[in-house]
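A reminder before we start the practical. When you read a complex entry, don't treat the lines as separate problems. The point of joint prediction is that each chain is placed relative to the others, so the output describes one connected object in space. Small molecules and nucleic acid strands, if listed, are placed in the same frame. In the example below there are two entries. Take a minute to note the order of the lines before looking further.
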Amino acid sequence: MHRFANPTQFMRIANAIYPWAAGLSVILFLIGLPIALITSPPDYQQSETVRIMYVHVPSAWLALMIYGIMAGGSAAFLIWRHPMANLAAKASAPMGAVFTGLALITGMLWGQPMWGTFWVWDGRLTSFLILFFLYLGYLALGDAFEDSERGDKAAAILCLVGSVNIPIIHFSVEWWNTLHQPSIVKLGGDGVKSTVDGSILLPLFLMLGAFTFYYFAVLVLRLRSELLAAKIRNARMSQVATHAAIDPAAEGRLFVDSARLPRASAE
Amino acid sequence: MSVFTAVLARDLRLALRQSADSLTVVAFFAIATVLFPFGVGPEASVLARIAGGVVWVTALLAALLSLDRIFTVDYEDGTLDQLVLTGAPLPVVVLAKVVAHWLTTGVPLIIISPVLAVTLHLPAAGYGPLMLALLLGTPTVSLVGAVGAALVLGTRRGGVLLSLLILPLYIPVLIFGTAAIEATVTGVSAGPMLTVLAGFMVLALTLSPWATAAALRQAVE
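Here is the predicted structure of the whole assembly.
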């Protein structure tokens, strides 16, 4: 595990994963979207609105999975100072917030025709809203410090504190018997159990796969750009240092105008 | 244990000598609550219906306003660095500071809450559960708030940020706190809700000092 604290090692694995994740995501979307939105049969009770579920369930699943990954990454960062784990958590957070928002919005659009209301204060909805605020808090806190390393650590601690919410979300539909339906797919000792017909499960699983691989593909892209941004920052810093060494007058200057410095590519 | 009592005594003495700080929080609690009859109208039945929730929400906001007192001053004048450098177990120090915060803000809020409940026409049966629920809930509020207060030390916009971080985590306490009052008023036992509140408190008591200590360590690093 510590081998992957080295960005080069880590990115070697990540870059190897990237074409597979991106390719599988595209293929699954190409197969899954037409089945989910057009050819799969409408539900006998919900008719066409059931199709919202093919976006809602994968979004909600990703919202939880990404928080789990972030919590794992934050723990690895705080315990072993694993820099790549922190980078992965930071790169995941905006996506997690978007998928949480998407799950909330699609759920509301589905709730209006089915429950007759956009919103109820039921356990699952409330705990999911809290998850959304936790994502926002993580992003805001990581951004609030002059010293970015302090922001990373503070946000990682907040992420771990917020993870008490994850089991609450998962079990909320079993603890509180209100509007949100319980899990339709259960993994048990005797395999996958479901209360839903196969014609609906097939597009659901296709979309789950498509969304999950999409996340991993975009995560690798975001990690790449984060590392490149760090490289550019370091190059700028060393340029400022050499510039100050050549021109002693520049050392006394409080602000170095980066536009006036020679570009990194000019070297 | 001596560390605990020493820090507790110090913080209590400081709070006593600047007692205006605690009184301001109580005054905020009272004023914010008194705004509601003007906002929703003075009709007794409406006010009685929302009294429990109003008292709880304003108590949470009042506590939120006082949270920066736990660490900010110590952080700015360097006392916090000294406390970390003493080598004393930091979670114990944190717990002492949280207990001091609760004694100087939580307890005054609990004491004044029945008076505010009277102005909101809460049925008399609700006073006991209101105070009990606050008694079990406000320690959780101080404990969870301490984590947030430690995390935002040294940020540019600490106060607003703190509310974004901490208020979502207060929602469970708020739900069960108001449910306890509601239950009694409608003639059901408040026992289960109070038990859940006590459970939250125990959970916060076991987790929060360590999370706060970790946050403080990275703040003074």
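Discuss with your neighbour: DSSP finds nine helices and no strands in chain B. What might explain this?
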